[in-house]
Amino acid sequence: DGLVVDGKEEIQKAIREEIKYGSDWIKLLVTGAFMSEGDNPKNVQFSDEEIIAAVEEAKRRGVPVMAHAHATDGINKTIKFGARSIEHGTFLDDESIDLFLEYDAYLIPTVSVGEYGLETWKDSEAQAKMYELTVKHRQESWKMYSKAIEKGVKVGVGSDNVGFPPNFAATEFRLLVKLGMTPLQAILAGTKVNAELLMKEDEIGSIKAGKLADIIATKENPLEDITELARVEFVMKGGKVIKSVK
Prior knowledge:
The protein is of the alpha/beta class. Helices cover 43% and strands 13% of the residues. The strands form two sheets. The protein has a five-stranded parallel beta sheet, sandwiched between helices. The protein has a three-stranded antiparallel beta sheet with strand order 6-7-8, with no helix packed on it.
């Protein structure tokens, strides 16, 4: 689950190895996390020199960088240094919002992760840290997410991890609406905006001749009720029907 590196040269070597073996994105854990022991999500784990070296090495190879970043300073530094997206952005502030807009960076708030934790890990010893931090900071984070949406920051849909329930993305759409998006904005966040973030808008993200035929359908209109996206009745993947409810 990633590499532990220290110093500019180790970072450059690690990125070269990742790209050599097929990675088409580089993810930096710029700050501490909610789920891991021994770190603080409000701390920045890399020096400026290390972050800059990572971004420059990846970009030199034509590979974009995403940054796991909770801490305000980590968010702001990494946007300035050239990261394409920020994952979580829990402690973003007004300066962060301005930087997202100035540098055309994307925010992937992964709101569902926190909600899943609150529902599932209340009595979990292993996830006690995550639960306590989510309870403590959820209200302020949601307030700033809503402000970022209102100001026009590009917000996408991401799961953060594997092993979550299959309805995870549908939950994220619902929560983005709760944060202030219209249902259409939320759907675009998970389709068109995500495709642009991945620089694959010529292949995915909208229904158009020549693009991959990855399509879902619901019985009722999700623009009227976003929770319809949790009740998918038709799935097409690469032009092949995977699920169809008659």
